[in-house]
Amino acid sequence: MKEKIIEKILMLLAFSAIGALLLMAIFIFKEGMPIIFKVGLKNFLFSAHWAPTKGYFGIFSMIVSSLFVTIGALIIGVPLSLACAITLTEFVHRRLMRILKPTIELLAGIPSVVYGFLGVVLLVPLIRDYLGGPGLSLLASSIILAIMVLPTITSISIDAILAVPYTYKEGSLALGATHWQTIHMVILKAARSGIITAIILGMGRAIGETMAVIMVAGNALKIPTSPLDPVRPLTSNIALEMGYAAGDHRAALFATGIVLFVFIMIFNVSANIITKRWQRE
Amino acid sequence: MATRINPEFVQRAVKIQLFGLTGFTIGILFFIICFISIKGLPQISFEFLTSNPVDMGRSGGVFATIVSTIYLIFVALVIAIPLGIGAAIYLTEYTRESWVTHIIRFGTECLAGIPSIILGLFGFAFFVMALRLGWSILSGGMTMSIMLLPTIIRTSEEAIKAVAYELREVSFSLGVTKWQTVTKVVLPAALPGIVTGIVLSIGRCIGETAVVIFTAGSSLRLPGSFFDSGRTMAVHFYILAREGISMPNAYGTAAILTLSILIINLGAYYIMRQFLKKM
Q: Which residues contact residue A128 at a Cβ distance below 8 angstroms, ignoring those fewer than 6 apart?
């Protein structure tokens, strides 16, 4: 009898995470949906006119900024991460890999505010002096985010590459392929879905990152036309205005959160589907 | 006619590039840590750690923010540990793989991917407004506990799975009930692995800003109870740096934040290594 009760309690605890997730979705949608209905979904998503105190709620420029910043982070971060993953798994001694992999993973622990701060004191002046513009820019945000997603993408890619059966490599080398031919024609192909999962998870981190981006993005409300333009992604918009927003304005920030939430869930679900396929392979 | 590039040459060229990129990446990471340490460590003194911020942080130390951070960690862990370990026990000891465990795992993974700003929004709407807890350590801690759940569930699950099945069989064969086996045999053996997850969680609590700023507020007073607002060290650092209040104090706080988290995470790795060696 006691055992049965314990089992029921444990089951309840096991549902705590998913319960929290549902509760979160319910509350954010409850707070944000009314304003989306009020201004119309099309207007909300595809108008770039954001003047919440005057009743204009269009987040198009922020959606574009978020996507650009994320894509920029991937363009810079993915090649570096993959280079690290390939070098550590294929070209260095296993013992060195066992030291360097945790070292790279440790850097995921550095708080995002610290990354943002480093961006402001080191990167922004460099961009301003050598490339022009205000320095606070799409480019600065992308570079900082690239460094922040590096540990995630590298670590999961290493696991994916290590999971490729050794016989694949032996077979390819036996056929006379060079080591590099083996890597990019055999090993990377076999590890493909794991690496894609890593990149999607990195994307999720990049699009959701707030405190680092808010410090280096410049937060200007317009659709960026060059990498040196200041931008305001979705996350920054929420964090910047939440402190003083009320009424419709606050609701519009929650609605911005809904859009972000939908993006993240799309990433999560696709990462999950690809991982499943990877495990089946 | 196109000439074929010698594959051996390509191999050598690629190898040099890959090593270059890897060296560059690891170089950046080391540079970050060195830069923060060199700029920040000289600012840290016994007085910096034990005196309260004066004049919005223009001078004085960070004592109140350390206290707020510790209170917040305490609340978050008190909630997240039982929930997380309970969930891990259920997933590993009480069920077989089925659609139920798939849903639970998927939910946990999604929760791990939720950005902190969304958690902050939720904590504000739910704990601060709906439950009328206001900006307080309690609201902040409860929101943080949600953020920690996936980490604790996952690491505890791994640790419990690593415990040899024979231990359970011996226990069952002695007529011990399932729950007793779990609490007396499995959990003690898995403890170091579980502790790893908890230690990593402490590191995340110290560094988190977006969640805390919306739920615990940013009052600089020393919090008297869990119902008071409090400014954690990460939030304090954000305000110092963003509003340009005091660069020396910002560097000092950045160094405390970064180095304490790195040390905590190193500790977690060490515990995990020892644990896996014993298994």
A: A134, A135
